[in-house]
UniProtKB/TrEMBL annotation:
<dbReference type="GO" id="GO:0005524">
    <property type="term" value="F:ATP binding"/>
</dbReference>
<comment type="similarity">
    <text>Belongs to the EutP/PduV family.</text>
</comment>
<dbReference type="GO" id="GO:0006576">
    <property type="term" value="P:biogenic amine metabolic process"/>
</dbReference>
<dbReference type="Pfam" id="PF10662">
    <property type="entry name" value="PduV-EutP"/>
</dbReference>
<protein>
    <submittedName>
        <fullName>EutP/PduV family microcompartment system protein</fullName>
    </submittedName>
</protein>
<dbReference type="InterPro" id="IPR012381">
    <property type="entry name" value="EutP_PduV"/>
</dbReference>
<dbReference type="InterPro" id="IPR027417">
    <property type="entry name" value="P-loop_NTPase"/>
</dbReference>
<keyword id="KW-0547">Nucleotide-binding</keyword>
C-alpha cells in the first residue's frame, strides 16, 4: 500500500479512518503530533486549523506517497483554501468521512465542492465505523 498522509480538521475522523484502513480496532485517540506509521502518516487537526503549523505538514508530507484531504460530511466549515493541494508535490485525494451520517444534499454538495476547489481528486466517501467505501480507497492506494 502507498503511504498515505491524512490532513483535516479536528474530529473529522482521520485516525479512525487509518485504523480502519490498517485493520486495527477502532479506538478513539487524540492525535497530538504527526504520527509516522509504516503505511501512513496521521496529523492533528490543529495543524490544518492553524496556518502556523503548515510547515510541519509540508515537511511531513515528504515521507508520504499520497496526501489525503479529509473533511467529514457533517462539517459546515471550509478549512482548505482554493488550490490548497498545490502546496504538495504529491498526488492529493479528497476523502469525505462519516459518509453514513444523514445530511441534506446541500451539505453534501458543500463538502464535495470544498475538496474539489482545494484541488483534491479523486474523491472518496467513506464510513470507517461501517466500513462503507473503504474498498475503493484501498484499491486506489495499492
Amino acid at each position: 500500500m502507498k503511504r498515505l498522509m491524512l490532513l483535516g480538521p479536528s474530529q473529522s475522523g482521520k485516525t479512525t479512518l487509518l485504523q480502519c484502513l490498517r485493520g486495527d480496532p477502532l479506538v478513539y485517540q487524540k492525535t497530538q503530533a504527526l504520527v509516522y506509521l509504516p503505511d501512513a502518516i496521521d496529523s492533528p487537526g490543529e495543524y490544518i486549523e492553524n496556518r502556523h503549523f503548515y510547515s510541519a505538514l509540508l515537511s511531513g508530507s515528504y515521507e508520504a506517497d499520497i496526501v489525503g484531504l479529509v473533511q467529514s460530511l457533517d462539517n459546515e466549515n471550509g478549512y482548505f483554501s482554493p488550490m490548497f493541494a498545490t502546496l504538495f508535490n504529491k498526488p492529493v485525494i479528497g476523502i469525505i468521512t462519516k459518509g453514513d451520517i444523514p445530511v441534506d444534499e446541500k451539505q453534501k454538495a458543500f463538502v464535495i465542492n470544498q475538496l474539489k476547489q482545494a484541488g483534491a481528486g479523486p474523491l472518496f466517501m467513506v464510513s470507517a465505523t461501517r466500513r462503507q467505501g473503504i474498498t475503493p480507497l484501498l484499491t486506489y492506494l495499492e
